[in-house]
Fold this sequence. Notes:
Largest sheet: 5 strands, antiparallel
Strand content: 35-45%
CATH topology: Virus Head Decoration Protein, Chain: A
Shape: globular
Number of strands: 12
Helix content: under 10%
CATH class: Mainly Beta
CATH superfamily: Head decoration protein D
Number of helices: 0
Amino acid sequence: MPKDLGHIGQAGADTTGLTTDGTPTAGDAVAIDQSTGKQTQANSGDTDAGEEFAGAATEDHGADGDEETLALSGVVIMNVASATVGGDRLDVSATDGQLAPSSGGPALALSDAGGTWEGASLGANEAAVYF
């Protein structure tokens, strides 16, 4: 049975509800836009607004202004670059909502992209990520 993007992989994950700009989908790396205070898809090119990795979207976000759940820490099935292998340090990539291998990044891949986690198959560009 596959694990869905945004699936929280262990008990004890830290979550909160925050207003969204409507762009993140389940499993996306999320940033907090410092100009609006809203959750948005993290992107390494969006540094002018102080947007840095804050966590993972646990569900597809609704309309701009809706409150949605954000995982602040724990193990989450996330959107990752296809080159990701278990043990890689990960950080925000140039692709909206995606993490990619990066030396010293704030997250750690626990599985390969498209691999398995807890006996379940993961889709392409999906990995179990700890942050």
